[in-house]
Amino acid sequence: MARREPSLFARLIVLISLVLTLGAAALTTAAWYYAREAANEAYDRLLVGAAYQMAEAVNVQGGVLTVELPVSAFELLALSERDRIFYKIVDTRGRTLTGYGDLATPESEAPALGGPDVQDGKFKGTAVRMARTARHFSDPSVRGRVDVVVAQTTEARTTLARELTLRAVALIMVMSALALGGAVFAIRYALRPIGRVGTALLDRDPHDVTPVSVSTPRELRPFVSATNEFITRLRSRMDLMQQFIADAAHQIRTPLTALKAQLELLSRQAMDPQGRQHLCRVQERVDQLSRLANQLLSHAMVNHRAGAVPFESVDVVEVVRRAIREAVPDTLDRDIVTALELPPLPVEVEGDAISLKEAVKNVIDNAVRHGAATQLTLRVREQPRMVEIEVEDDGPGIPPELWSQVTERFGSSSSAGSGLGLSIAADVLSAHGGGLGFQNRAGGSFAVIMRLPNEMRQNR
């Protein structure tokens, strides 16, 4: 069983979907980093602002450092209701003036340079964001640097980063869906020329072997060119086959006819009984060879014309007349009464006259050689939806159990025949949409019935 290949459309959609998925994953990752940075930047400003306010609240009174923490500093940090705030102020001697003494002081050179420093850290097992700043004193009683550390838990900023990321992801999903929908439409539109080429090939007449002429994009031109090249080669092969059949018919029939004539002349010469017996056998074999060659050529010709020659209006009555004129003189070697029962007016069907004549000739030849003892009758009957050509003889006929075999190639071959006659007729009738049937008649006669559809009468 042939392996089923996915369609080009499916392949493109899968590839585009994969690209969009990877792109969406990359954008989602970038959105998370950007959202986290944005949340940190927003909350870090509040954290640094609070640290600055606390640093400004440190003063020298009476030669001693004092701290009056401003409420506004805590109000800034209180904007995040979910987070907790920790702070510590360290004097010039490294002692904690106020706040959480166990709050670690970040190691950084930024305070020494006078700028704030913000880092991630942990306090009491909780992730925090820590801002450190410093204030320098040059009072006669107090000289040195005072460090201010403010820490805040990260729950609010994580929530903000998550919300920003989810909004970005929603936007990415919408854009990806729109991109995929646009890709589906674009691919359908881009692949439409392939459908036009397929339609042009399917709609062509079976007998049309001219090159395909259909407007296609540049990418499809190699395919159309290859198809046209194949059609050209096929037409050349068909012409060669037809020429071969014609040459074979001439080259084989001519020497066989001459050989039969020589044997006929030789049979008139005086010879002993044994030589006469051998001569009779040779004549029989030559007759069989001549008939087999004719039937093989007829079969090849019929097969070649099937589907290659356009049907036209054919008069079945005239076809039968020509068939019996050509068949009976060649095969009749005893007294057989031949009768024709034909309608007075032409009976027309759509078909190939030459192939139909070959079919009728083979059925007549088969009846004369293997059936008819003293009588052969040909009839043409026009039915409401079909035309019947009947060949009836008074011979023993074909047993019903062999009816399905005699229409096969060499299905009924014997010492007296090749088994091709009825096969040729069945092939021709099948190509015309008809069929071959058999019937045992009362009185001991046997009939072969060829049926053809009568489409012309239905159209009328």
TrEMBL record:
<keyword id="KW-0472">Membrane</keyword>
<protein>
    <recommendedName>
        <fullName>histidine kinase</fullName>
        <ecNumber>2.7.13.3</ecNumber>
    </recommendedName>
</protein>
<feature type="domain" description="Histidine kinase">
    <location>
        <begin position="247"/>
        <end position="456"/>
    </location>
</feature>
<dbReference type="InterPro" id="IPR003661">
    <property type="entry name" value="HisK_dim/P_dom"/>
</dbReference>
<keyword id="KW-0418">Kinase</keyword>
<keyword id="KW-0808">Transferase</keyword>
<dbReference type="InterPro" id="IPR005467">
    <property type="entry name" value="His_kinase_dom"/>
</dbReference>
<keyword id="KW-0902">Two-component regulatory system</keyword>
<feature type="transmembrane region" description="Helical">
    <location>
        <begin position="168"/>
        <end position="191"/>
    </location>
</feature>
<dbReference type="GO" id="GO:0000155">
    <property type="term" value="F:phosphorelay sensor kinase activity"/>
</dbReference>
<dbReference type="Pfam" id="PF02518">
    <property type="entry name" value="HATPase_c"/>
</dbReference>
<keyword id="KW-1133">Transmembrane helix</keyword>
<keyword id="KW-0597">Phosphoprotein</keyword>
<dbReference type="Pfam" id="PF08521">
    <property type="entry name" value="2CSK_N"/>
</dbReference>
<dbReference type="InterPro" id="IPR036890">
    <property type="entry name" value="HATPase_C_sf"/>
</dbReference>
<dbReference type="InterPro" id="IPR050428">
    <property type="entry name" value="TCS_sensor_his_kinase"/>
</dbReference>
<dbReference type="GO" id="GO:0005886">
    <property type="term" value="C:plasma membrane"/>
</dbReference>
<keyword id="KW-0812">Transmembrane</keyword>
<dbReference type="Pfam" id="PF00512">
    <property type="entry name" value="HisKA"/>
</dbReference>
<feature type="domain" description="HAMP">
    <location>
        <begin position="188"/>
        <end position="239"/>
    </location>
</feature>
<dbReference type="InterPro" id="IPR013727">
    <property type="entry name" value="2CSK_N"/>
</dbReference>
<dbReference type="InterPro" id="IPR004358">
    <property type="entry name" value="Sig_transdc_His_kin-like_C"/>
</dbReference>
<feature type="transmembrane region" description="Helical">
    <location>
        <begin position="12"/>
        <end position="35"/>
    </location>
</feature>
<dbReference type="InterPro" id="IPR036097">
    <property type="entry name" value="HisK_dim/P_sf"/>
</dbReference>
<dbReference type="InterPro" id="IPR003660">
    <property type="entry name" value="HAMP_dom"/>
</dbReference>
<dbReference type="InterPro" id="IPR003594">
    <property type="entry name" value="HATPase_dom"/>
</dbReference>
